[in-house]
Amino acid sequence: MDFSAKLTLPYLLPNQAQKHVTMNESLRRLDAIVQLSVISADLSSPPDDPSDGDRYLVAEAGTGDWAGMDGQIASFQDGAWAFYPPQAGWVAWDEETSELIAFDGSGWIAAAGSAAAGDPETLGINAAADDVNRLAVRSAATLFSHEGAGHQLKINKASETDTASVLFQSNWSGRAEIGLTGSDDFLLKTSPDGETFAPTLLARPSDGHVGIGTWSPTATLHVAGAVRLGRATAGELPDAALIGLGALIFLIQEDASISLVYSDGQHWRSIRSGEIQSS
Question: Helices in the chain by DSSP H: which ranges?
Fold first, then answer.
């Protein structure tokens, strides 16, 4: 073998005359392709007045002295153009765009870590991304943290009838969804099978109505179904002044009977008689 396998550097042979010629050819080739930086990767024809050592990547449809050299490294050396075919994995710095590019075996592409490669169409982190789930992460947890102050996670939709939500799944089947689903109402809905969802909590921005168990609340608080209040003995009642005017609770009397009482802001009173039950 007279040449190296990868860079095609000529070897010195036994009893070879003018060994310096072979050595200089190897150095010349190394000077062109090691620590590769090219002035441009977008030219199809040679520049008018190149300087010795200038390097380019020949763009498609090379013309003039660059004809037939598409994708190769063109180096101006000793007053003439020399060409070096790249191999898969070679990396070059494009001085014109300030981008790192790599040869993938058929063409030059943006290299990982360069600005041009910083906007991928899909990204999978320990997972396979696809056209729908363009960002896919598989891990025990995912952290979004502040950078000195607060932090917002924004989910934006195009129009009112679209969806901007977070879906919670069990074995890839939906069990709960929260967000704006098909309207601008804020909704928490649940499902036993991932197919049929029932409203758990709905807050409507147009009038501030909140519904529990209903899609259409007609009052500030609309509960579709029974409401269960807490209960306490007289000694367990919270301070009426702290809990505030209008609170309700069931009071267990000493004889084990139960009555409904409300807070007037200072005392608990019987709804039936209005008598003070506890201060």
Answer: 19-33, 240-243
The order of strands in the sheet holding 231-233 is: 231-233, 248-252, 258-263, 268-270, 276-278
Q: Name the residue among 71, 137, 142, 145 with its Cα closest to residue 108.
A: 71
Nearest alpha carbon to residue 80 among 104, 101, 52, 109: 52
Taking CA 261 as the corner, what is the angle to CA 258 and CA 264, rounded to the nearest 5 degrees?
165
Residue where the block lists tokens 């799944």: 169
Over residues 210-220, the mean pLDDT reads 94
pTM, to two decimals: 0.56
Q: Which of 116-130, 143-157, 158-172 bottoms out in mean pLDDT, i.e. has the lowest?
A: 116-130
Q: Hey, CA dihedral for 252, 253, 258, 259, is it positive or negative?
A: negative
pLDDT of residue 216: 93
pLDDT digits (tens, 9 = 90+) for 188-199: 999 999 999 999
Q: Look at the alpha carbons of 72, 74, 75, 78 in this order and tell me if their dihedral is positive or negative.
A: positive
| C-alpha Rg value of the chain to the nearest Å | 38
Q: Tokens at residue 190, please? A: 């649940």
Pairing of strands 248-252, 231-233: parallel
Spans of all domains in the chain = 35-110, 163-223, 231-278
**Sheet holding 221-223: strands in order across?**
163-170, 173-181, 186-190, 198-203, 210-212, 221-223
pLDDT in tens, 91-115: 999 999 888 999 999 999 888 655 5
DSSP annotation of 140: S
CA distances from 61 to 67, 87, 109, 201, 212 (A): 7, 20, 17, 63, 68
CA 88/CA 252 separation, integer angstroms: 82
Closest of 161, 250, 236 to residue 262, by C-alpha: 250
